[in-house]
């Protein structure tokens, strides 16, 4: 009897949570293709005349700047962040495994400290420094800050992966006459693509969505990424409702699509990361 | 090795065979320091230096331009006597712990439900992380619409249940934290679930089977066997969630702007407004330092607790 109840409870929580998770995404996509009138008058109806103009409205004309501009700024920022974090952290994470255990521990301690520094402590000095060097309102320069803040996590997750890397493969490579650098580039990197993707996606999700740093370093609307620029949509639920939802769709869809295609790596990466800490 | 740090067996892999015919170590050790150099330089510029500057700024007056004017501990004295600051500290702590507690509790329940063997659980793993993948600003804008009176989805739903559809959730300082906590939990559970499921799946099947033989149902299995075994991970993820919610500027800023009348201004929002709305950078830096010290203590206690549980 109790087993029936607990089974019922577990499937209820599973289906209830799934509905709560999916509902907003379904609403956003449904509303993004409805005219504002239809959203008010028949919000739940699935038979309606699609209003594709919402997307071009959002892309071209919402607010002073456009979703199109925000999108390009986000792409520059996130691209730079990924480049910086992966280029710097991945090679370092690999070659660190050859250090003496003592040095490895020291390196790990320093990097681990980097994961707990709260962003709130960094934002104002960033503003000071960026304004001093004339780097405000430059998405690429802001991307370097995001990339650096992603380095500690990238390093720790990659290092954990490389520590468990099968040693026989490395030895075989050396016997084949590969130099250490070529060994890393030709053999280790290709076999680490899955882990690199998983860590990279985590950085992408964060840099794509965060506004705490971008709102300070990219305050000019023409330089803003989606996460900040979209704030001008907030509260604007009366005028062009359809275009607002189309904007939300444009903002949310790229990371979600990427995630769906690469989810295999991401879920594994998170499970590993959680345990390793 | 007599160190408090738990070394992985394989970490010493290459050193045990230093003399083996394959000379992997010597040259690579140099390469390691060469690759670590840019990493340390960047961490120094973007982490160490700014922390130092924050502390210096917190002891000065600065309006955004020109040189700093040293004022000693004046900013801190002011903040400790400021009622908005005291309110914000309290509210930030309550908000962070409430979100963390609910996220971990829900994540654990869902991990237990899924691990008890449900069909299609691979798809659930993917879907449940959607709220964590979508940009927090977009999520917050959607939900701020959902919590509007009359036409907001949440109020329509409550209206159908006979609970009234006219709550202006976000417009009153008394109710603004309900939607704030709800949205943060909605967005955060996916991550906690994935980590906890990873931990639950590490619990040997034989242990759970023994419990089933003893007549334990799913619920008992979970509370008596699984939960105690994953306690270190629970502590770690709870600590992380506290830190993230405490720092959770993006979501709350898009949802409430800190309002109404600063009633939902958690410390990062208050500091942002203090600096970039009112140009009082010294005060804002002092707030950041106070928040930073608090978070370092939380992080330190969390890691220590998790380590000691692991050692048991």
Q: What is the CATH fold-level name of the largest domain in chain B?
A: MetI-like fold
Q: Roughly what percent helix of chain B?
A: over 70%
The dominant shape of chain B is globular
Number of helices of chain B: 15
- How much helix, percentage-wise, in residues of chain A? over 70%
Number of strands of chain A: 0
Average pLDDT of chain B works out at 83
Strand content of chain B: under 5%
Gap from first CA to last CA of chain A: 40 Å
Structural class by SSE content of chain A: mainly alpha
Report a brief summary of the structure:
Chain A is mainly alpha-helical and 277 residues long. Chain A contains 13 helices and no strands. Chain B has a two-stranded antiparallel ribbon with strand order 1-2.
What are the main properties of this structure?
heterodimer, A: 277 residues, mainly alpha, B: MetI-like fold, 2 domains, two-stranded antiparallel ribbon, 2 strands, 1% strand, disordered N terminus
Report what the structure shows.
The complex is a heterodimer of chains A (277) and B (312). Chain A is mainly α and 277 residues long. Chain A has helices at 2-32, 36-41, 53-60, 67-95, 101-115, 120-132, 139-163, 167-175, 180-191, 193-209, 214-217, 226-229, 241-276. In chain A, helix 7 (139-163) runs antiparallel to helix 10 (193-209). Chain A is globular. With 312 residues, chain B is mainly α. Chain B has two domains: 2-58; 75-311, MetI-like fold, CATH 1.10.3720.10. Helix content of chain B is 70%, strand content 1%. Chain B has a two-stranded antiparallel sheet. In chain B, strand 1 (60-61) and strand 2 (69-70) form a beta hairpin. The chains are: A mainly alpha (277), B mainly alpha (312). The interface between A and B is large, with 105 and 116 residues.
């Amino acid at each position: 009897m109790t087993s029936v109840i607990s089974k019922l409870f577990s499937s209820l929580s599973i289906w209830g949570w799934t509905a709560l998770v999916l509902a907003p995404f379904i609403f956003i996509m449904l509303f993004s293709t409805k005219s504002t009138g239809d959203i008010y008058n028949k919000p739940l109806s699935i038979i309606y005349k699609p209003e594709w103009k919402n997307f071009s409205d959002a892309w071209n004309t919402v607010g002073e700047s456009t979703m199109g501009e925000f999108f390009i700024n986000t792409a520059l920022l996130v691209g730079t962040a990924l480049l910086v974090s992966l280029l710097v952290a991945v090679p370092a994470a690999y070659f660190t495994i050859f250090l003496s255990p003592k040095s490895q521990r020291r390196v790990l301690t320093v990097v681990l400290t980097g994961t707990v520094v709260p962003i709130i402590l960094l934002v104002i000095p960033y503003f000071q420094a960026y304004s001093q060097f004339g780097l405000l309102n430059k998405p690429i320069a802001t991307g370097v800050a995001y990339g650096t803040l992603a380095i500690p996590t990238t390093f720790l997750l990659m290092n954990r992966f490389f520590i468990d890397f099968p040693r026989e493969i490395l030895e075989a490579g050396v016997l084949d006459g590969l130099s250490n650098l070529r060994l890393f580039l030709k053999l280790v990197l290709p076999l680490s693509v899955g882990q690199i993707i998983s860590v990279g996606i985590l950085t992408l999700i964060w840099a794509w969505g965060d506004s705490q740093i971008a709102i300070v370093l990219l305050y000019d609307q023409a330089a803003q990424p989606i996460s900040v620029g979209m704030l001008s949509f907030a509260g604007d639920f009366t005028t062009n409702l359809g275009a607002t939802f189309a904007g939300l769709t444009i903002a949310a869809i790229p990371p979600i699509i990427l995630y769906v295609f690469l989810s295999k790596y991401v879920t594994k990466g998170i499970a590993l990361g959680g345990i390793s800490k | 090795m007599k160190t408090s740090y738990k070394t992985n067996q394989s970490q010493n892999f290459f050193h045990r065979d230093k003399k083996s015919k394959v000379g992997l170590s010597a040259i690579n050790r140099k390469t390691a320091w060469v690759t670590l150099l840019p990493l340390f330089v960047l961490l120094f510029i973007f982490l160490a230096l700014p922390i130092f500057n924050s502390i210096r700024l917190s002891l000065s007056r600065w309006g955004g331009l020109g040189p700093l004017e040293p004022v000693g501990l004046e900013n801190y004295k002011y903040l400790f006597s400021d009622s908005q600051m005291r309110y914000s500290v309290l509210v930030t702590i309550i908000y962070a712990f409430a979100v963390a507690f609910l996220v971990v509790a829900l994540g654990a329940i869902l991990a237990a439900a899924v691990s008890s063997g449900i069909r299609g659980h691979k798809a659930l793993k993917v879907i449940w992380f959607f709220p964590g993948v979508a940009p927090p600003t977009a999520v917050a804008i959607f939900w701020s619409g959902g919590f509007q009176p009359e036409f907001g989805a949440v109020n329509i739903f409550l209206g159908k249940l006979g609970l009234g559809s006219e709550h202006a959730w976000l417009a009153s300082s008394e109710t603004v934290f309900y939607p704030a906590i709800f949205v943060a939990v909605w967005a955060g559970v996916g991550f906690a679930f994935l980590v906890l499921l990873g931990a639950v799946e590490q619990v040997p099947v034989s242990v759970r089977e023994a419990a089933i033989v003893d007549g334990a149902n799913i619920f008992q299995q979970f509370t008596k066997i699984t939960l105690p075994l994953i306690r270190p991970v629970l502590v770690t993820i709870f600590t992380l969630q506290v830190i993230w919610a405490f720092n959770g500027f993006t979501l709350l800023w898009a949802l409430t702007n800190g309002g109404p009348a600063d009633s939902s201004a958690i410390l990062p929002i208050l500091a942002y407004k203090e600096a970039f709305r009112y140009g009082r950078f010294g005060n804002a830096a002092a707030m950041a330092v106070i928040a930073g010290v608090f978070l370092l203590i939380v992080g330190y206690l969390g890691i220590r607790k998790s380590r000691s549980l692991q050692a048991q």
